[in-house]
Fold each of these.
Amino acid sequence: MKIQGKHIVVTGAAGGIGRALVERFVAEGARAVVAADYDLAGARATAEAAGASVTARKFDAGAEADVQDLVRFANETNGRIDVFFSNAGVTGPVGGPLETSNEDWDSLWRIHVMAHVWAARAVLPQMREAGEGYLLNTASAAGLLTQPSALPYTVTKHAAVALAEWLAITYGGEGIRVSCVCPQAVRTQMLVAAMGQSEGASDVVAAAGLIDPEDVARTVVEGMAEERLLILPHPEVAQRMAFKGTDHEGWLADLRAKI
Ligand SMILES: NC(=O)c1ccc[n+]([C@@H]2O[C@H](COP(=O)([O-])OP(=O)(O)OC[C@H]3O[C@@H](n4cnc5c(N)ncnc54)[C@H](O)[C@@H]3O)[C@@H](O)[C@H]2O)c1
């Protein structure tokens, strides 16, 4: 899909990857962009920097009523939505079942999985009626491989990938395109927060190949042009997936040796 002339909603747009996506979509000729975030001041700053075709909107990705309200707002402001980009995300706690509370699990499920389900529920009717539309979510390389330091992040990002695959299979025949963006380390506030959480994190980040949000946005536009399900801003993720696919036990042993 070409971006020119499209109406696009981007969540998590107050900074980082979301802000870079908004700026890139405007540069590519999007007709209208809604920049949504629970940080309204940040979303407004994105809108001001990106230009007059961008409108800021406050919303909480963890609440279905807010996702519905966002879709209603975008429709009333700019008409039918062509692209819904569910990008908002959080680091979540480090650790596994022993360290993570049920409240943290619930919060990550809502933001990383249910937000995308609610978005699909809210926009699919208008996209199916039009016979076209594009749903994207930002998962992570942790959703294809794993992130040994953080179980809830890993599990919920895997679920986001599975959701994107299911939507692509089920609605692809009706003209609905689906992509899932799976970066490793990107220079954003989230990464700064994650690096502060665990010792040795900066070595892990360095090994993961740190890139900028603008690099992700460029890869997204390329991936959308090809309508590819998996958009991998770090090409080495595809190599790790191939290793996992051909030698699962070897892949597990390799990761075990690194923790
Ligand atoms: N930075 C990385 O290294 C990296 C790597 C892989 C995947 N990701 C994913 O990229 C996406 C964007 O993250 P980022 O790196 O740009 O970080 P970021 O912290 O700069 O941006 C995340 C945005 O989401 C917003 N947000 C969080 N919870 C929300 C909620 N409940 N409702 C509305 N908005 C909410 C935040 O306010 C923030 O503006 C996330 O889904 C993240 O998991 C990031």
Note: The chain has one domain: 7-258.
Amino acid sequence: MEHQNTSIKTPQFSHITPEDLDHIYEPSEDSFLLIDTLEKDLELIRARHPAVCLEVGSGSGVVITALATALGPYCCYLATDINPRACRITQETGQVNGVSVNAINTDLASGIRAQIDVLIFNPPYVVTPSEEVGRGDLEHTWAGGELGREVMDRLFPRVGELLSPKGVFYLVVLKENRPQEVAEVMALQGFSCSIVLSRTTGPEKLSVLRFTRDR
Ligand SMILES: C[S@@+](CC[C@H](N)C(=O)[O-])C[C@H]1O[C@@H](n2cnc3c(N)ncnc32)[C@H](O)[C@@H]1O
């Protein structure tokens, strides 16, 4: 029987320059929490035999690249970002780590018609005035507006049509985003929610939620 690795390597990202980091999100605690979540759930993900994985808002591309190196080439890896520079760097991060990631410059998942088996989103979740949402490249990375929910809330109504029947959706949230309320919104679409990992770093309590269809 073939031995399958149960760990996920952190991708190499030293090709990202300080100038790039003036425009895109530097891999941070939340990025690594998400990678740790995917590692924890790797058996669950493999058991679903995913064919298409999509990361919305891929930034540097470390998260989708980490998943691609763990699952291998029998799957198609897509990424989106509102920032074209993040798309270019996501593709480069894939190449540098020997995997192919197709990064598309679009708002959330606009224009994506595929059935996604693994959907990932580490959204801009910081509570800010609404005017800061989408004001510039760096604001795109963190400014979440009211309750930090203004960007993620726009994706939720599309999750039902985007996810394949066996699909799984991972979402990073902050305590201030009211995770219980997010779970209730998704429950109305027939998804059940579990907290896979939580971590407190400084003042931030971050969690990664997993949504799957109710059976
Ligand atoms: C918190 S960063 C996460 C980056 C990366 N996924 C990670 O975990 O390191 C949020 C990312 O979402 C992108 N983003 C923000 N609003 C978006 C939108 N409406 N559509 C697509 N991407 C968006 C930002 O440009 C940024 O790259």
Note: The domain at 20-213 is CATH 3.40.50.150 (Rossmann fold).
